[in-house]
Structures are given as structure tokens and as C-alpha cells.
Amino acid sequence: MFKKLFALICALSLLSACATKKDGADIYGNGNGGWNDDVNIADLQETINTQKFRDETPSVVYFLLDSSDLTADARQNLAEQAKWLADHPRVLVVIEGRCDERGTREYNLALGERRAMAARNYLMAQGISSDRIRVISYGKERPVVLGSSEEAWAQNRSATTVAY
Question: What is the pLDDT of residues 42-63, one digit of tens each?
């Protein structure tokens, strides 16, 4: 009797372990091929799509000082991103808005979000579903280039699209 009970408990434990979520977040989950609401952007790790997107598209768009308006070059880069995303319908993206080091932390977080939203809105206007896009602003907290020169500042006034 004890052996049968022990075997049953072992079998149930094994089955329940198989039914639990794998380590790492499943980013797909809203039923429409979009982001799972429980995914924390900070926990995401690069995938094969991350590098493929970087290699095949201009993944960064740049902005003028104190601006979240898309330049002609930015629109062209985003159009290429939209085409790539249309060709890869299971890929999800995070758009990271950034600023240079000038200005307050709060101002730059808001400006970085406006930049990321400008890129998001352009992709959506090109037919990419909002379910596939998340935005985050790093403001001046995570510069791409360190330095206090116009060259460094210009590279940090950006929105970077990262694919997952």
C-alpha cells in the first residue's frame, strides 16, 4: 500500500513539474501574438531576433536637441524597421528612448518617452500592431556614448528599437 501511495505521489509531482512555466518569462501571451502583460522589460535577454534585427535594419533613430520630432532620416529608418517587422510577424519590440546628459532627470525621462512614443506611433502608422510594441525611457540614465561633447550628446538623443 505504501509503495503504491509513494508511486502515486511521485507521478503527480512529476506531472505538476511538467505543467509549470519554464524558467524565464514567456513574452508572448495576450492571445494576439503580442506582449504578455507580466513581462518585465528589465528581465528580457537578447534572442536570435535581436541580433538579426540589428544586422538587417537601422535600429536607432536620432533626434535634434530638445525635440521628439522625427527627422526625414528617422522616418526612413523607421520605415525599414516596419518593413522588417511586417516580414517577421512573431517578433516583438521594445523602443528605448534616450537623451543627452543636459537637463534634469525628470525632464529627460519625459523627453525620452516622447521620443520612444514618436517611433512607436510611426511604426503603428506603418501597420505594426501596438500589441507588438513596448516603450521605455532611460532619459539620460543609460547613455549609449559617455562624454560631454556634441558628438556624444548627438548619439544619445535617440530611440533604439530592440527586437525579441
Answer: 778 888 888 999 999 999 999 9
